[in-house]
Amino acid sequence: MRNSLPDRRAERGWSQAELAERLGVSRQTIISIEKGRFDPSLPLAFRLADEFGVAIEDLFDPER
């Protein structure tokens, strides 16, 4: 499974900037997470999952 964050964000019609604002992080943080260059902290991963109403495992591959 790949990082599904970009797909889920697009399904909601949110820009990277909008998601970043909702989470209180920078747009660059969202870009880096989506490109797989940055693994979010556990608290941020939980906030992301909560924002989309899914489990962390549904957003990120735990085997990566």
From TrEMBL:
Transmembrane segments: none annotated. It holds the Pfam family HTH_3. Keywords: DNA-binding. InterPro entries: Cro/C1-type_HTH (IPR001387), Lambda_DNA-bd_dom_sf (IPR010982). Residues 9-59 form the HTH cro/C1-type domain. Gene3D superfamilies: lambda repressor-like DNA-binding domains (1.10.260.40). One of its GO terms (molecular function) is DNA binding. The keyword DNA-binding applies. CDD domains: HTH_XRE (cd00093). PANTHER family: DNA-BIDING PHAGE PROTEIN, TRACRIPTIONAL REGULATORY PROTEIN-RELATED-RELATED. This is HTH cro/C1-type domain-containing protein. It comes from Occultella aeris.
